[in-house]
Predict the structure.
Amino acid sequence: DAGVIQSPRHEVTEMGQEVTLRCKPISGHDYLFWYRQTMMRGLELLIYFNNNVPIDDSGMPEDRFSAKMPNASFSTLKIQPSEPRDSAVYFCASSLAGDYNEQFFGPGTRLTVL
Amino acid sequence: DAKTTQPPSMDCAEGRAANLPCNHSTISGNEYVYWYRQIHSQGPQYIIHGLKNNETNEMASLIITEDRKSSTLILPHATLRDTAVYYCIVMEYGNKLVFGAGTILRVKS
């Protein structure tokens, strides 16, 4: 298996622009997680899905952030409008229902908002 | 979920065993001990987890004390590629992973 795939790997955008991050989980995994990592705040869970349904979005910082999972093999995290403080590395992870906490992480998307 | 205490950093010689400690004195009976690591510029990687008994897999061994108030992750033969931040996480099954500051392990030749 190719593992969790994220795109793009790097994104540079200007403040106010819409940013869309993409994730393809490992085939057969039931859970999908979105995390954000910064030097100041460390690694934070933003939202997670079970069988394509959002379960807990309490970590989503603001209404500017939204996430969708239209099918079992694809998820997006959108920021609209983006701000410089959104600059971070965003990770997607997936896991099986029986091994919920054995999460497989993708390589991350490094987002820079100018 | 119980809090954990880890040393901020440790050094280990290449080829030697790396022993990473974690204190979790307030752990409850149904909380597991999980270990993840994050190599520079990569996503975190699951290593191992346990409840009461010692566990071993192809990556590492996890030793949990009888009172479960502390544990040690052992990398039997550390290599330069094991240089990473190691996170000890104590939580109930199904709860969210919360990553603390972890231990920076530097493996030196």
Remarks:
- The CA atoms of residues 53 and 64 of chain B lie 7 Å apart.
- Chain B has no helices and nine strands.
- The two ends of chain B are 37 Å apart (CA to CA).
